[in-house]
Prior knowledge:
Blueprint: H1 5-21, H2 28-36, H3 39-42, E1 45-51, E2 57-63, H4 68-74, E3 80-84, E4 90-93, E5 96-98, E6 101-105, H5 108-118, E7 126-129, H6 135-144, E8 148-152, H7 155-168, E9 173-176, E10 191-198, H8 203-207, E11 214-220, E12 225-232, E13 238-242, E14 270-275, H9 280-285, H10 287-296, E15 301-306, E16 312-317, E17 323-327, E18 334-338, H11 343-356, E19 365-369, E20 375-379, E21 385-388
Parallel strand pairs: 7-8, 7-10, 8-9, 10-11
Antiparallel strand pairs: 1-2, 2-5, 3-6, 4-5, 11-12, 12-13, 13-19, 14-18, 15-16, 16-17, 17-18, 19-20, 20-21
Helix pairs in contact: 1-2, 2-6, 10-11
Amino acid sequence: MNDSPDRARPHREALAHQLTAAGAIRTRSWAAAFADVPRHLFVPRWYEQETDARGITVWRERRATGTDADLAAVYRDQTLVTALDPTTAEQVDETAWTGIPTSSSTLPSLMARMLEDLAVEDGNRVLEIGTGTGYNAALLSHRLGGPVHSVDVDPGLVETARQRLAEAGYVPRLAAGNGSLGHPAGGTFDRIIATCSVPAVPDAWLDHSKPGTLLVTDLDLGIEGGLVRLGVDDARSAVGHFTATCGRFMAARTDATSYPAPRWPDRAPTAGTRPTTVTAADIRASYPFRLLLAFHLPRTQLVHHVDEAGAVALQLQHPDGSWARAPLADAPATVTHGGVRDLWQQVEAAWRWWNDAGRPSQDRFGYAREPDGSVYAWHIPDGTRWDLPARA
Length: 392
């Protein structure tokens, strides 16, 4: 099958037009980049989630070199999973595996919105955290035509990306290493963009910054997270706001191929069940409210819980063993809880605040990382502030 760039050009141009019409692309330079950079060169193989004939959820391999439909699929506005954790992956048939994704080619509309928010200018020196497939580095190289640096924790991904970038005609400076520690070559940058999530802005990224540096990254705050656009000032503070675009990137890794096994706290005994004014459906329905909950309940996780009868609930759990659980089938609305912290009382307080404030969207919240490492979020219209953990 001939995979020349000309064969894929109609798909690239259609993607650029789609992203422009949706408002993800706002400038001609980024429209040209998406129309010219061959995504299929960087994602020749990917995995799509499906349920097989036995009812098992698997990742089914697809290749851009398969059919015309496969080539077109590379240029859909969707995230493409490109690697699975080898410690959890198990092959179940010739082209399918179970397992946890560890790398992906990001949703193109999300990439476009982040790149527009980065507000690059000709001559900017840019650092990308999370090389992945190399596609984003190619887009940056196309736009800037100059010094793009990129780092990824997986040496294999870096080498593959280097080869594919060279084939496409781009030569960014790639390095293998822990992106949370910055780029091994050091130096300062005008722009920093991360395509992985971190619990807080790392010290190393500020070391790479100078007054005027803009930083776009995804924050994982526990219950929820989001993209922030931050400016670095003379005092080495990074201050800005959550963007209108939702993120949900994979977490930054310290291991090249896998994530450490999660350590869940031992849950405290059940203390009781009571009525509540906030349901699991309320939480599921609103991303801005979940983000606000993350401010109110730092270090708390939101997970699904399935009981012995198969009933599903949303469960909050804190490292000290406190927990609270509200069923998805909530008639009447109740919460069951345990532990020293009344987590659901905080949920109800946050719900009252959010409604009294007019249900603000996520871009009405600011975020700051100060030189001393302190971190906080605030409601931009009235200054209400929540202190956040500096690190996970």
